[in-house]
Structures are given as structure tokens and as C-alpha cells.
Write a structure and sequence with these properties.
There is one protein chain. By secondary structure, this protein is an alpha+beta fold. The protein contains 15 helices and 13 strands.
Amino acid sequence: MKASHTRGAVSVRFDDPGLVSHAGLVAVMRLAEDAGLSDLAGELVRLGGPVGANAGAKISTIVAGMAAGADSISDLDLVRHGGMAGLFTGIRAPSTVGTFLRWFSMGHVAQLEKLSARLLARLAELTPLLAGADRLGLLDLDSKISQVYGRGKDGAAFGYTGVLGLNTLAATLTTAAGRPVIVATRLRGGNADTRRAVSSLARRALGTARAAGATGPLLARGDSGFYVGELITMLAREGAWFSITAPQHSAIRDAIHAITEHAWQQHTYRDPVLDPHTGQLIHTAQIAETSHTAFTNPTVNPGQKTTARLLVRRTRITTRDEQGELFPAWRYHAVFTNLPPTTTRPATTEPDTTEPDTAGFDTATAWRLHDQRSGAIEHVFAELAAGPLAHFPSGLFAANAAWLSLAALTHNLLRATACLAGPAHARTRLTTLRRRLITIAARVTRTARHITLRLPQDWPWATDFTHLFTTIHAPPHPA
């Protein structure tokens, strides 16, 4: 491809009042309106004073900007160009929105979390966002350090990654038929302990998931940072299953070494997994399980004594020196879970479904369910980092916490939009969705009080865009 003109034969002018750069926002914000975003925001988010007025319009402006790819407060100005004023009302300037965010306290952030939970429930009613949640829901817990620049940001500190940052704690909900949605978030200082406040966040995530229609069993998954007696006993008390990586302390090592040699069975991965110690892909391993009682110290863990299954995977350490291998050596990885066991399927098989067997889960199935954890929530973190959480835009901690909560809300709104765009986009990455169906240039024309968006000819995804647009703008069903 090359330019069809000489350098002197082309010029630019920003003077067309009928052009918009993100025509897909018409469908996204119509879905948000149908779900009641503005009304819920006005009802639930109450900052008080002149700054807190018209919360619905200000929050809708932020969400629209984030959906279009804004990753800072000043970037929100992209919803105020060309013909956008003819498509939307109540658009607020970035300066107004910035003042609004800086007025937030952590109590007001809790109001945003309630707003996000209520909106998720309504989106689940309007779209197949959580299809299959009546069978099995996977609740993933994880935290991530986001690097920040400048020591003036409240809460910024050096954490376990060795970089200056803020710590995001999040919980996502995934079903067998859908992509992950965010059910709870919390912003913490960069040096926060992984375990801090995880039990309260998980309890809130369970409530949000249930309210959104996850009526089936819920399995909470996490890495060794969440091997916490308070969390595990809370999950069991709330009727949820847990699957948490067990740290390699002495009690766990003793339980592993007590497993007899004939109990180990060959396990072949359908999709190879990465060994974090060697960086190599694991294609085969050996798995076994035993029973383990954890959190037995009544002083440190009062009332948290828990007996459950301990699933163990071992992989051969093949590094040799000039003497060769004197005896086989293994690297172990353990998971503590209360998934109900079964013997109805051989331990060496990997079924193609994550739906629960009526008799429970065999060792291989339970292990595979845990292995899928990082592939779910880490993709969500990557999508947030490629969008509104490319960085935290404010120097104030509560404003950044509000920004995080609204980024999670926008993520769920875009996931619901993708569900209505057809099967080709229902499971696509949000960066792809944004590029194909949202960031589309259009000319706004009016004829006899009817607005028409004139879109590019031969747009590769015109069929999907048309399907999304007509689905969302279909007339309401008669009462």
C-alpha cells in the first residue's frame, strides 16, 4: 500500500460538525440506558454539594469515554467532538468529571461498587452475559500491581514486584458459555499484603454473583496468596466450593510425602501449561490426592480448622550434571479444595465440559478446573491494562479507586454488548471489539426527524455492527 497523492496535494481540516469517530457508542450507551445506568447512578451515588449533582450524567460520560478507549481524565474529551452532541445529551467536560472524581471518598466508592453490582444483574437479564450460571460459576480471585509514576500518588508504594505501584484486588465470574465479568474490585496500597481484605471482597463477590443469576454451584479459585483460613471457612459457610493453591510449608510437604507411590497416575494435558519455575510447557505430569486438615492452630486460626481434599501434581526435574541422575526428583504443586470427589470417570481423562458431575469431580477434572484459573482472570487484567487502567489518572487514592470501579463496570457493559454482536464477537477480546464495532467513523445525517449514521463502505464487520445495532434498537415488547 502506498499513498495515491504527492505531499503537496493533500491537506487536513477539522471543520466537519457532522462526523463522529466512535459510532459504536450509540449501541453501547443505548444498552447502558436500557440497563438503567444513569438512573441507578443518580439513585445510588450521592456525593452531596454542587459537585455531586447530576451523578448519572457524569458517570455515563466516564463510562462512554472508557468504552471508547480513554485511559485518563483528559481523554474523556473524545466524547465531545463533531456530531456527538447530536447523538447524546448530558455529556460533561473532562474538567467537570475530574472534579467529580476528586470529590470521592472510600464510602462513595462503595456506592459505585453497589451500582456496578446492580447494573451487572440488569445486564444479565437483558443479554446472555452469564449463560450457564445456573449450572456452574467460576469465581476467581487475584491481585495485580499496576506501576505508577510519581511519588505524589496516594497509596503508591513498592510491593513484592519491586516497582512503585498500586495494588488491585479483583474477583471475576466465568461460566462455561461466557467470558469473565468482574463482580468485585478493591484498590489497595502498593505494599498491601495479598491476603488483606480478601474475605470481605469474596463475600461481596458471592452476593453479586448470586444477584446476577448465578444460582448454580460456585467454585472460588485462587493462588497460594489466598490460602487463608478466614477466607476458606467463609466460602464453605456460604455454600461455595473453593480451590486454592496450597503453599509448600511443612504440613503440606508431610501430606505429599505420605502419598504412596502406586497412587500417582499419569496425567496428559490437552492444553500444555507453563511451569513457573522453568518457563517450560508441561505436557504430561503425575497427579494424586490425599486428605489434609488445615488451619489447626486455634490461636492463629480460631474456628477455622478445615479438612478437605489435597490435590497434588508432580513433574519430573530433568536437570542433570556430569554425574547423571542418581535418583528421580520431582517438583510438587498442591491444591486445597472441597470439591466433592467421584470415581465415575477415570482419573486420566479430561472431559470437554466444566459442568459438575452429579456424583462430584474426579482428581483430573478438579485439577483441570483449578488450572484454568489464570487463563480467566489474568486475561481480564490484561484487557483492563489495555484500556482504562493503562494507568491510574489521579493523585488521590479514592479518585483512583472510583476510576477502578468504573473501569470494571465498563468492562461488564462491553462484555454484554459483545454478547449481542453475535457468536463471532461474544468471546472476543475487548480490544478487538473496540476496534471492530466501536471505533468506527460515521457521518451523522438528519432527514425528517430521523437520524442516520453514514458508515464506511465495505467495512469488514458491517454485518456484525448492523446486527448489534438493530438488536439493541429493536422496539420494546408489548406489555
